[in-house]
Amino acid sequence: MGAGAARVDCSARKIENLKGMIEAHCSSREAVLKKLEVDPEIGLSASAVRQRRRQYGRNQLRQAKRESVWRILVEQFNGVIVWLLAAAAGLSFYFRNVTEAVAILAVLAINSAIGFATEIKAVRSMEGLRRLTLVKVKVRRGGAVMEIPAEELVPGDVVLLEGGDIVAADLRLLEAANLQCDESTLTGESVPVAKTIEPLEPETVVADWTNMAFKGTAVTGGSGAGTVVATGMATELGRISEMAQAAEAALSPLEKRLDRLGGQLVWVTLALTVLIAAVGVYTGRPLLTMVQTTVALAVAAIPEGLPIVATVALARGMWRMARRNALIERLSAVETLGATTVVMTDKTGTLTENRMTVERLVLPDGVIGVTGRLALNGPVFEIEGAPVDPGKCEPLHAALRVAVLCNNASLSDNGGQSGSEGVGDPMELALLAVGRQGGLERSALLRELPELREEAFTTETKMMATIHHASGGFLVAVKGAPEAVIGYCSRILSSESVESIDEAGRAEWLRRSRDLAADGFRVLALATKEAGSEQETPYQDLTLLGLVGLLDPPRSDVPDAIAACRKAGVRVVMLTGDHTETASKIARDVGLINGADARAIQADDLGNLDELSEENRQRVMDATIFARISPKTKLDLVSLYQSSGAVVAMTGDGVNDAPALKKADIGIAMGQRGTQVAREAADMVLRDDSFPSIVAAMEQGRVIFGNIRKFVIYLMSCNLSEILIIGVATLGGLPLPLLPLHILYLNLVTDVFPAFALGVGEGEPDIMRHPPRNPGEPIVDAQHWWLIGAYAAMITIATLASFTVSLFWLDMSEDTAISVAFLTLAFGQLWHVFNMRARGSKLLLNEVTRNPFIWAALALCAALILSAIYAPGLSSVLALSDPGFTGWVLAFGASLAPFVAGQVAKAAARDLVPA
Hints:
Layout: H1 29-36, H2 46-56, H3 69-75, H4 80-94, H5 98-130, E1 136-141, E2 144-149, E3 158-162, E4 170-182, H6 184-187, E5 193-194, E6 212-213, E7 218-230, H7 236-243, H8 253-282, H9 287-301, H10 306-323, E8 326-328, H11 331-337, E9 342-346, E10 357-363, E11 366-370, E12 381-383, E13 386-387, H12 394-405, E14 410-411, E15 422-423, H13 426-437, H14 442-448, E16 451-455, E17 463-470, E18 473-480, H15 482-487, E19 489-493, E20 498-500, H16 503-518, E21 522-531, E22 542-551, H17 558-567, E23 571-575, H18 580-589, E24 600-602, H19 614-622, E25 625-627, H20 631-643, E26 648-652, H21 658-663, E27 666-670, H22 676-681, E28 684-686, H23 691-731, H24 740-759, H25 782-809, H26 814-832, H27 852-870, H28 872-878, H29 884-908
Parallel strand pairs: 9-23, 9-26, 19-22, 23-25, 24-25, 26-27, 27-28
Antiparallel strand pairs: 1-2, 1-3, 3-7, 4-5, 4-6, 4-7, 8-28, 10-11, 10-22, 11-12, 12-13, 14-15, 16-17, 17-18, 18-21, 19-20, 21-22
Helix pairs in contact: 3-5, 4-5, 4-9, 5-10, 5-24, 8-9, 8-10, 8-23, 9-23, 9-24, 10-23, 11-23, 12-13, 16-18, 23-24, 23-25, 24-26, 24-27, 25-26, 25-29, 26-27, 26-29, 27-28
């Protein structure tokens, strides 16, 4: 939507949520707050929230219409299969064969009922998964900062904004520190909009409402706060969405391939069945019988269950991933996960616990250790075992004060001594926690030193600053990367005095920073200065206070996960903003690298990745660690790996990670510490930020693809055998071994239940010991087509052999011989499911025999087959009868032949077995 489309003046454009009471953009902050009856420092009370939720409803856009039960049911009767069955029933009625017509209609009803039950479960599963991904926002209510689901926002809520947030409602801004928003979703303009807090002229167009933040836009930089003036469909985004039409969900590549395969099979099947019908009529078979046989063969051969099984397999796999804390945002990601060859992962929170604690403070007077972090009594700060009192050590007190002031987190009041309880970045929570141990609370400090403005952290400056009103002037508190902060320091504070620092002194402090990093610490530098005005540049002429060493221990489950990736042929590459030394130590701790072989590259040494020589390109491709990385370099590295043929999965959590997450074949966002912008751009969200969850998701991606391939091979070999049985019998002048209703019944029984059971199996235990598959590999390649043909031939030979033996050798009647052939084919297809075990798996204990759904399907199918023989009404409709002891022995023995032959062939020619 262009800016011109948004030209609505203030007199016409009221905030609908508030019945036109507020003209927010052209009113002062004070007027808006007064009308909303809210104190920005306290927020709404619980009773006010309840009252406004009743009045204005939930903060939700009108959701896409839920797939109705009736629509799913009606869709079951729309397709080639249904039309063929209806035509067969019509022909039966025309030729006055009412019993057969009713039976065909019953098959149609049962087939549709199975499809309906399966599809509705899959659709509801997908809808349930979408409900798991709820956006949360930080609000101030009752004087406390808390995180709540975005849909619980009400007009008057005070919302806190940081870079990476998605704005969850229309806000009138109250604070803006270098705040910028990407409003391309509303205006079509890709350039971020700088935000202000001053009222605007009434006639200002919506695209220029710089004092408003709109629902659905992204905060790309800075920080701020605003009060909610519109929620749900009353927001600007809601107005636009009401005019938009819902778009159809795109099919995943896997579903498209399945549809293409099904379409090809339809035409091949129709050609074969018409040929068989023509030959049958030419050789004197009854026209009605051959027409019905043709329809039955077409129904049997066309894999109408392919799309449903694909949906069921994907939905079940996604639920399994969700149980392992991996939420899939796009169905296509499930397929691509199984083909991933390179995982580019962050360090913090993914390979480490993201549980920051301050362990060390390096000050001009010495190194202060932080001990007893969880204890409320006893010494906390000490030098060489001697306790240090922050109240009596000015450098320590000044450092702690800056750490607490230059901070956007909020530590909870009920404990949180280790920085683990609160809202905000774990590093900032750790700084607040160590400040609390030193007797400094942020709320008390801000009463003494009110914050006037904030210079937000950016990837360019690698620093953050806050400016505070102090007695007699202004105090600037700065924290950031040591190389950035130290470069702007001209003085240093010790217990004795404030001294000048020269280049040699700065180099010495940078060396101390590298030493800390080499010990595995994340390092921050703290600095301060007194300013003459609020608007003075914060990053000049600073006084260095010292360094903070924070420790984030590696996750205990990561080494096994990395080892699993190695066995699976998947490379793991670490991308981090930390120093090379810190990254290398963590990499060694988690088993990513061995010994001193770091194979680490710092971003500054990469140069232009588009202009690398072959030697340097190989050096980059061989690296395991990329340190001090920038978002732009992440994007370039993804492109570099993809150009070499790799399928890349990449993790990210920041606003600037979004382009690389979109560029990667699989973008993986962090659910706990990731920004909403990153989550919106990703294909998968990790709710626990854990690397092993990525490995589990890759395993499920492989399992899903393998299950669908097994299902297709099983189904196609069974269906092809039915065509061959009728075709060979017709061409050979034999009586038809199967009647049309037999084929329809078997298609309903043996094709559906075992095939679905294969589609939802747990997969091979050693599936992660094989290399990734080629992402362009078809579901069924030439090798698998040969395998399908071989399996179909085995079943065909066994069925025709039992039919001819019973008819010509045992002198059974034609009806009894047909019953023998029916039983041979039915049970042969059931045992054939065990031929789907993986290459190299054991005969008795494998992924098929361990699948409880297989055994349930076999029991159900066996009961239905016996019902076709012994149930009085059904057996008469199907014209089947008890073949007697001899017939049963023949049928049962012949039905085992394809299974035995398949196992012998599997042992003799392993290369023909599906992977």
